[in-house]
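Let's practice the habit of predicting before peeking. Look at the sequence and jot down your guess about where helices and strands might fall. Then scroll down.
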Amino acid sequence: MPEYSALTVFNKAEAAKVFAMEELSYETYHALAMLIEGLLDEGPVPGISQIEDRMLILQQFLDHSAKQELTVADLNVVLLIAQLCDDLSSEEAKSIKEKAEAILFDSKNIGVVEEAIKNADGLMLADKLGLPFKNQLLECIEQNFEENCCKCFWLMEDPDYVEKVVEVFCNKLPFDIISAGAAADCDFGDKNFKYYAMLESILTNFGRVPVGREPELAAAAVQCPSGRVRRQGVAVLEVWVENTGVPLKELLPQVHKLLTDIIADEVCNDITESINELIAGKTAFADSDC
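Done guessing? Here is the structure:
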């Protein structure tokens, strides 16, 4: 449920009366779960913080949760409640957190999460429950790359998986499309946007890749039609250069040559400026976050 409508729905539907009911059908329960999910997201508009009896509502929701056959979507809401209470110091919040975690760690619900892992789902829950999921996730990314590649960040934080993930991306990405050359504005409206998004999903954490490993991904990124992806590609090069203190020309001479060849075709002034700094041998950068 969109966050902007959750509080309105709660008030207009007099949802507090539903939460207070003794028994709920699963359909009604799941609707409440989606409502809670919307309320817990306080941005961009206020949500559960505007409900006077919010802690009672959360208690009641968890009481209903303990009686239901829960899905991964339902369990994710229970997890959000536990996380909310992490930031609260009251005894009431502590009690709610304990109740939420009792539901999450129930053997039946652990089984639900274990099944979800097989389809690269429920990963936040798996992480919370300490369930192994990384091998299965890597397999799912390989088997259904388009659907699951965006989940690679779960693996990019683990040095044991970084190079395996990079190899999958190098094998699956259509390099002729993602490195077709700079364009001014081709993101959401571009027919190939989904491929740019696939490349972007790994670039976000590509600074963790060993310096210079698989430089073709970074090289493809700085030639991508998407300006957003080109900026991330430049940021990767900046991280590598800054981490080693070695100018790009010495660190990756082939990429340095590529930048000198393509800079004349760059259409975004900020990217041109960043590329010029790399070409000139700069080794420290203000904002190189990837």
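How did you do? The chain has a mean pLDDT of 91.
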